Amino acid sequence: MNTQITQNTKDLQVDAQFPQTTREDEIDLRELFSVIWQGKWLIIAITALFAIGSVIFAINQPNIYKAEALLAPASSEASSGGLAALASQFGGLASMAGINLGGKGGIDKTQLAIEVLKSRQFVGEFIEKHQIMPELMAVDKWYISDNRLSFEPELFDTETKSWVREVKAPLKPEPSVQEAHKEFMKIFSVSADKESGMVTIEVEHQSPFIAKQWVDWLILDINRVMKERDVAEAMRSTEFLNKQIELTNVSDIRVILYKLIEEQAKTTMFAEVRDEYVFKTIDPAVVPEDKFKPRRALICILGTFLGFMLSMAIVFTRVALGNRKIY
């Protein structure tokens, strides 16, 4: 009898715990909704303020257009095939003579061209050659009606064609190459697909015509720069090899040197007859018709959501601090 009474008492205690938990949950939910309801006007006001602000911000953001071109690495067989054959045929003898024929382990010309495109020297020369510093650093608006750019008057004076921006030392009114390079890298990208090896060059700008023009110029300039580098290197190598021929009487070494001079001549000829020296254009850049950014709808949604979350945080913080009177 006592055992049964004890068991019934335990069952009643266990059953009593669940209704109590349910009541506590109901009370918590009621308090939660009560707090939200009390602070509804604050939540509505902050959310509306952020929504309006995000709409204004999105409307004031200029349209940015992106032009892109798809490139394929140009074949380098004419310049590397002969050296590879020489390396396999005379590699041991050339090593004994202190001559490096290259072959495997050379620098990938495509990757080298990509790194040159990103370099401060190339970007600085590109900006200076095409005189695009104002279009890069001081554009205010692009007018689609007459394809015209306006510049920020506090940065660039269009009448005198001079920079008037106020900066702190060591910066100067006219942007330096380092400043221009940083700004250019924000709107420029170049990447190579690991599987196909195709290279994509992209430029973003308020003017779609300028974005397209800059992509075309970049392709022309990188092919020209890489061609000039290889031609200059071939000429220096030829001059050096001719001197070495005069200094040696070993017939086998002279054969190697003459072969090397022949390969350098092929490199020079190959460079002179090809305009697309490093990159061949597969899909040229066109004037983009659709804007790339900003995504105004997404900005408005995120801004409104941020305002709602901030208002909720303010309401619950006030309650947590003990101030239950919410306006």
Automatic annotation (TrEMBL):
Domain of life: Bacteria
Tyrosine-protein kinase G-rich domain span: 281-319
Keyword annotations of the record: Cell membrane, Membrane, Transmembrane, Transmembrane helix
InterPro entries cross-referenced by the UniProt entry: Bact_polysacc_biosynth/exp, GNVR, LPS_length_determ_N
Membrane-topology annotation of the record: Multi-pass membrane protein
Cellular localisation: Cell membrane
Residues annotated as domain Polysaccharide chain length determinant N-terminal: 25-129
PANTHER family: FERRIC ENTEROBACTIN TRANSPORT PROTEIN FEPE, TYROSINE-PROTEIN KINASE
Name of this chain's protein: LPS O-antigen length regulator
Organism (species): Shewanella litorisediminis
Lineage: Bacteria, Pseudomonadati, Pseudomonadota, Gammaproteobacteria, Alteromonadales
